[in-house]
Amino acid sequence: MYQFREFLPPDTIAGSYAPDDVLLLLKEVRVAATAVEEKEAAIQSGRRHYSEMISDEARPDALYMDLFRQAWDEGRERFARDTLAVAEAIATEVQAGRLPARVTLCSLVRAGLPLGVLLHRALRDMGVDSAHFGVSIIRDRGLDMQAMNFIARHRDPDGIIFVDGWTGKGAIRGELDRSWTGATGRRARLAVLADPAGIADLSGSREDWLIPTGILGANVSGLVSRSILSADVIGPGDFHGSMPAGHLADLDISRAFVDDIHAAMRRPAARCAPAHTSVPCPTAREIQSTAARAAVQAVHDAFGIDNPNRVKPGIAEATRAVLRRKPDLVLVRDPDDADLRALMHLCRTAGVPVSTRPDLTGPYRAVTLIARTS
């Protein structure tokens, strides 16, 4: 597939993954950083969309990197096993004729990239014709259809599977359905590692667990920023934009992480796959999604929240919100939960209050509430 590089615009971002692992359909852009407080005020007032701005991505401190490495060590076998299970489910769909022989993974930037790289490697190990692209999707703006049109010119659209790291409330699922299904009439197949919201087509599990890549940013996702969609730097025919995160290059473990998990996937222990991974039982998935929606609504009701974008459920979303946004409060099921060590460290460092509310978290182990700016 990577002969397609010759057809890409010269300003396409490269990232730090190996060239055989992913082709990033992102325009390299440079925009001035916006302070977090200014960004929050602009977003919540409706003056600007979040994708038009970006804040400097902070360097994780030494203790946080130690916590990440601990999560990596403790989660290695599970990450490998669950990823392999998803790959085997995709291969089964191909063998059964429910997917075409040429599978195309479209990882949603950034959270989907590490999983997409590993699924791509696993499928190739199984002899499946797999191609892997990184594409942008933005809440309230949708999927980058310029990127998808590029892919459709080279690969069978019926073989496309969208890849994300996990599910939160389901906003991205909705954007996929509106953008992809609306444009093509095809169902958007979504594969994730963890699906606590109960909305993915394929998942390693439905448990909200400490996915290592969920608690770190650019330096575990190919050294690219989240996607940017500002008319100042993105023209009508451009891919969505992204900025290189070169200031984190000395901390970049993107390749090391996928190499390590891929090696674990090749060990016999990784073959013990969860039974529900292939085609989830519709009843079980509905029970999960109902519980997730109820938990989010309970948080809205308990705190009088009328803007759903202020609620970030799940370990990964809750952690990223503390890293990148202006949090007001973090709700946890159990403050002594080992999977919440990194989140609790961030809260202590930033002075973010934590409340133990197992009555509100539902299938999630943590929920961050973004502070109201006005």
From the helix content, strand content and strand pairing, which structural class follows? Answer: alpha/beta
Biggest β-sheet description: 6 strands, parallel
Q: Strand portion, in percent? A: 5-15%
Order of helices and strands: EEHHEHEEEHEHEEEHHEHEHEHE
Instruction: Give a count of the beta strands, DSSP E runs of length 2 or more.
Output: 14
Report the end-to-end length measured between terminal Cα atoms: 49 Å
What is the CA-atom radius of gyration, in angstroms? 19 Å
Low-confidence stretches: none
Mean pLDDT: 92
Structural shape: globular
Per DSSP, the total helix count is: 10
Spatial order of the strands forming the largest sheet: 1-4-3-7-8-9
Helix content: 25-40%
Describe this structure in words.
The protein has 374 residues and is an alpha/beta fold. 37% of the residues lie in helices and 14% in strands. It has ten helices and 14 strands. It has a six-stranded parallel sheet, sandwiched between helices. The longest helix is centred in the N-terminal third of the chain and has 34 residues, at 62-95.
